[in-house]
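Record 1 of the preview.
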Amino acid sequence: MIEITHLSKQFEQFTAVDDLSFSVSEGEVLGFLGPNGAGKSTTMKIITGFLAPTSGSVTVDGHNIATDALAAKALMGYLPEGAPSYGDMTTLGFLRFVGEIRGYRGDELVQRVGRVLAEVELGSVALQKIDTLSKGFKRRVGLAQAIMHDPKVLILDEPTAALGESDSIRILDMVNRLAKRGKSIVYVSH
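->
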């Protein structure tokens, strides 16, 4: 599903990623571990097409991120560390907005938003502004936007960072349920 081959990224004199190769199969959860500054987030930004590699390649279900970016990105859901959102929007409003950006309208939009609200257990805060949510709920909103289009691949960068134990366990349970549905998941953690 994901193939990383001889991936490298340099920023002037600094090498952030050095000749990295790995693969992730369908339904597999790959833990991508390392200390701060090890190049984990840089690698995720390359996989998702936010950064270009200095060398090497990334393919997602046979689509090269450099030469067939739209097809590769359409298969991915991404939860970056410190995922941006619009704090003055409600959870429901934000998820509708994300769905509309993804091209959903009418009944399909309503169904997809309803599905992710239920799947990520956000019903109790659907009408609450994102700025007023706890860190755990904010991360769940981020996860919900990442799975809106039912992607084959999920890239989760520090999804439990700064969360308490119960919120971390809840997020990990959600990740496991998604993997059981055949999603290929890269889970980044320090």
